[in-house]
Amino acid sequence: MATLADAAPPKVTYDGRDYSRGAVKTPPEELALTVHGYTTGGAEILDTDEPGTATLIWVGDGDTNWIYGLVGGP
Fold first, then answer.
1. CA distance 64 to 71
2. Which domain holds residue 20?
3. Between vectors from CA 62 to CA 6 and to CA 45, what angle results, nearest 5°?
4. Quick check: is 2 in a domain?
5. CA–CA dist 28, 74 (Å, integer)
6. Which residues pair with 65 in a beta bridge?
């Protein structure tokens, strides 16, 4: 029996860096997040368009958003 991938897995690799899942959290509207990719489970990886390494990103599946923190520092 096959299992589906978790939309918000415990760890996400984005832009060559690892991020670990934190709490369910709605991102502030002023961040103007855009979709920068998808998890293996199909959830959107959201980040700003600011240059540099993001220390926080969000993952959303349409109903819920999770905040992810950079592992190891910038």
1. 22
2. 11-70
3. 65
4. no
5. 22
6. 60
Number of domains in the chain: 1
12-67 pLDDT, tens per residue?
999 999 999 999 988 888 889 999 999 999 999 999 999 999 999 999 988 899 99
Distance CA 12, CA 8 (A): 8
Tokens of 54: 């993001």
Here the tokens at position 67 are 């905040």
- The pLDDT, as a whole number, for residue 54 is 92
Token reading at 35: 């979709």
Is residue 6 a part of any domain in this protein?
no
Separation of alpha carbons 74 and 66, rounded Å: 20
Which residues on neighbouring strands pair with residue 19, listed in sequence order? 12, 70
Residue 18 lies in a domain: yes
Q: What is the pTM of this model?
A: 0.86
- CA 15 remoteness from chain centre: 11
